[in-house]
Amino acid sequence: MSPQKKIASEGPGSGVQERSSWSGKWGFILAAAASAVGLGNLWRFPYLAAKYGGGAFLLVYLILVITFGFALMMGETALGRMTGLSTIGAFKQFGKKFAFIGVLASLVPFIITPYYCIIGGWVSKYMVSYLTTPADVIAGDKYFTGFILNNPMTYAWLLFFLACAFIVVGLGVQKGIERANKVLMPTLIGLSIVISIYSLTLPGALDGLAYYLIPDFSKMSVNLVVAAMGQMFFSLSLAMGIMVTYGSYLDRKTDLEQSVRRIEVFDTGIAFLAGLMIIPATFSVTGSAEGVATKAGPGLMFGVLPKVFETFGVMGRVMGFLFFALVFFAALTSAISLFETCVSIVQDMTRRSRGFALVTSGVLITLVGIFVNMGYNIGLGWDPMHSIFGFGEYQDFQMLDFFDFISNTVLMPIVALLTCIFIGFIVKPQKFIDSVRESSDFKGAKLFSVMIRYIAPICLVLIFVFYILNTMGIVAL
Q1: Phi, psi for residue 397 in degrees, rounded to 5
Q2: How many whole angstroms separate alpha carbon 250 and alpha carbon 5?
Q3: Burial of 474 from C-beta contacts in 10 A (0-12 / 13-18 / 19+)
Q4: Res 11 pLDDT > 80
Q5: Cβ atoms of residues 20 and 249 within 8 Å
Q6: pTM, entire model
Q7: Would residue 477 count as lying in a domain?
Q8: pLDDT tens-digit readout, 151-171
Q9: How many domains does one find in the chain?
Q10: 3-state class of 17 per DSSP?
């Protein structure tokens, strides 16, 4: 197809607006897979696998990916390809009264991208630190807190990471995102394999491998299933507007079903390798999986793992650098996808040029990122989660936690549920099935229809309820 899709434009300074597109099937697959492979794979998947009996969690997660995840990803991507628009325009095309779903979906990347780039800045700092600082210093108990409370440093690393994402997105879909992913994704996979192999050579690591791979069905519970659903849901970049946007750049000849299956393989493969890197290595150092099972997110990434690398002796700095380089690439590919989604939304809303949308999105994301980062310095005394929702003890949560709660725990499950209702009962699955069949047989059509209408909505309600209860401290996931 033509390198650019042209859509009619209204508004000042425009006549015809050029819309980007992928150069081909693999450009889309690599970009979508890169979006899915992010921090969630690297700092939450190993934690959940360690907590919920290793292989038992892996089995449940895999089943959910090929059923629940497949249906939602197919629905979002097909919606984008059918309409050639990002979230607001895509839903609005079926009637103005449905535009509110697109508006809610569009809020998600604008909320997530700023704080994701803050964490990306932390990762960048650690990656560089392993080139200049001894591993035992980085593993110190006060190293991380000393850094995030350092005003100039945190803002500088935030802006550095933002600039990396901005440059790639600024180069465009084909020359920027596609080219970057052709380098970043193979590098990311290669680093994952190298670190995994090294982890397995450590004394006692094979015990960790057995713990990770052999199912412990005594750990099976409702909490395990809900945790696996939540991890799968967030990991696959669902309900963020990303898959709708990326689908809108896709031509009608691309086999959509096959492409989505390959994206799932990439994402699940990296998540599996994350567990293979982290669980055996931690097992080798501590003799159990407790070091991983009791820590998720920043606590695992910036607390537990540097202590593990410290025990590697002369290899500590090398493995620390390689690992954080891997995390940097994973964070950057996801940030690029989120940033691109914001750009696409602004471009469709304003009917202005891509350059205008890029600058507007960049300024907004930077300002919000600086605001959220203030929660670690001049806004350190304010706990929005406690002040607004009454959750936890005062000062248990930061501004970043508040933004994460609004986007991940509240908006994303609601958007996904509304999308299922929209596809399943308003537009009807057959319209989407017919669209997908323009490029493939769609062997999973029956699965898609049943999942999107009945099973996925129930799963999403469970995710929403359990994650609210988890935030309130009533249940532990």
Answers
A1: -120, 150
A2: 10
A3: exposed
A4: no
A5: yes
A6: 0.90
A7: no
A8: 789 999 999 999 999 999 999
A9: 1
A10: strand
